[in-house]
Amino acid sequence: MRPSSPAATLQSCSQGNCAAQSRPCSVAGTGWTSILGTLLRLARRVARVTGACRAPAMSTAPAWSTVTEGSAQILLPAGQKDVFYNPAQVVNRDLSVAALTAYNDLLTEQGRTTPLTVIEALSATGLRSLRYAKECPNIGTIIANDLDRGAVESIERNIAHNAQLDGNDCDYSRIKVRCSDANAVMAEHHRGRDRVDIVDLDPYGSANNFIEAALKALRSGGLLCVTCTDIAVLAGSKPMQCQAKYGAMPLRARYCHEMALRIVLSFVSQIAARHGLVIEPLASAHIDFYVRLFIRVRKSQQGANDAIKKLGSVWQCSGCESFQVVPAVQPKSRKANELTQAHAPDTGNRCKECDSVFKMGGLWWMAPMNDVAFLARLQAVVSSPTCTLATRTRLQGMLDGLQGELHDVPLFMCLASMCHTVHCEQPPAQRVRSALINAGYRVSRSHTLPTAIKTDAPLHVVWDVIRHWVRERPVKKADNENAPGYKILSRDMRTEVDCTIVPESAGVGKYPSNPTENWGPMARAKRGAPAVSPAKDDGLKKTRVDEEVAA
């Protein structure tokens, strides 16, 4: 039996019977409430028959915005939830462009002329690959990979967008887009001529799962670029996670960000040694909420065997800022080429300054984290009159700070924490540094902390400078004779302190403030949400990261 039409249904109802239900209609002789209810039921029946209740199809095309960073421009959907992009990482990308330029200059001086091959294993929007292709000299094939289909569509869209903007100015066919697991892509380059010159790892969180595949994909002399944003893990807030991820125990101390760099270097070095590789850190920096490292990797079985010499542990006093570095191994007494296990520090298990117990962390990288010559190359690139990097001023200050550090002195003491321990006001940092220089020792700052005292002076000399300051400005000693500050101030001075100010070179600002609010990490991108291609440039919201950062 054919179903009745909507018109017939309404006509039947108007005559007092519901044909569809074969019973007297409830509309007749009822109140308005009952009438309205009946009309609603009838409207729903009509809608089911005619499909009239379906909402008109809405356009699924998202609103698009353009972001210009360096010489590249990318398209982002409104909300940025399907593809990850963080404007705070512009410093990272600017530094990477400068590092690849300096690395190419280094290879050119060594006689290398063929184009460099690059793998960006976790590409997201493809912005970094686009900037490498447009801004770095002598770049050949770039493999831009991401596991997420939405990210891959974003990469392809942004390549097409830049090709439309630039015409024939840049060969975008060099950028090969892949949608695969990062380790699988790098595994395709583990042999012979398939190996590449540069691997860039910039994951959301830790890069620990990608290091081994990246090292095996590099040619001897290749460059590994690593970003880790899990600072809470590396800086000591989550020691068990750090041990699980990096095989190192962190410590809660004011040098925690330098410690984070040394933990990553130790992790990379130990993995490299398994494959007969040795690492040479070219530049390592803590920036905002992450660490960024540029590491050259060479094939050397002897270097791999000797890698343990560059690792060590740290004994940190639980009561004051004192610490002692203990190498992982030491030479045998008669055979310098043979190594044996290191001994415990000569201080015993108690701090000589405050008699508190030690806490032990490690293994960490204890060799230099930066190559002075490469830092000079980086500074030359950033300071060049032709440099157009948006964060140029900040990079100059950061590199100036890195160059001024004592590279052969691991870790540092914090002036503010030392004064807090003995309950005195903080002396001018320049006065403390001058006193150490006048005593015949070297001293520098650290790019990770403005109040750092990085020095090769023995611990008692540094504390003697503080004791000298307290004698000039006496403080009330703590009533508790077991307090660390009381014990430190009770000790006799063994150093003649001369606080005559030593002039320091004036440079650009090394510790700039954040350029905008909420300058930090962002939420992880939602995976598996393919974006819809935008229409022609109609209604595109345009922003320029360069202008925001430079402001």
TrEMBL record:
GO terms for molecular function: tRNA (guanine(26)-N2)-dimethyltransferase activity; tRNA binding. GO terms for cellular component: nucleus. It comes from Plasmodiophora brassicae. This is tRNA (guanine(26)-N(2))-dimethyltransferase. Residues 506-551 are annotated as: Disordered. Belongs to the class I-like SAM-binding methyltransferase superfamily. Trm1 family. The lineage of its organism: Eukaryota, Sar, Rhizaria, Endomyxa, Phytomyxea. Gene3D superfamilies: N2,N2-dimethylguanosine tRNA methyltransferase, C-terminal domain, Vaccinia Virus protein VP39. PANTHER family: N 2 ,N 2 -DIMETHYLGUANOSINE TRNA METHYLTRANSFERASE, TRNA (GUANINE(26)-N(2))-DIMETHYLTRANSFERASE. It catalyses: guanosine(26) in tRNA + 2 S-adenosyl-L-methionine = N(2)-dimethylguanosine(26) in tRNA + 2 S-adenosyl-L-homocysteine + 2 H(+). Its EC number is 2.1.1.216. The keyword DNA-binding does not apply. Residues 535-551 have a biased composition (Basic and acidic residues). One of its GO terms (biological process) is tRNA N2-guanine methylation. It comes from the Eukaryota. It is an enzyme of class 2 (transferase). The keyword Ribonucleoprotein does not apply. Transmembrane segments: none annotated. Keywords: Methyltransferase, Mitochondrion, RNA-binding, S-adenosyl-L-methionine, Transferase, tRNA processing, tRNA-binding. InterPro entries: SAM-dependent_MTases_sf, Trm1, tRNA_met_Trm1_C.
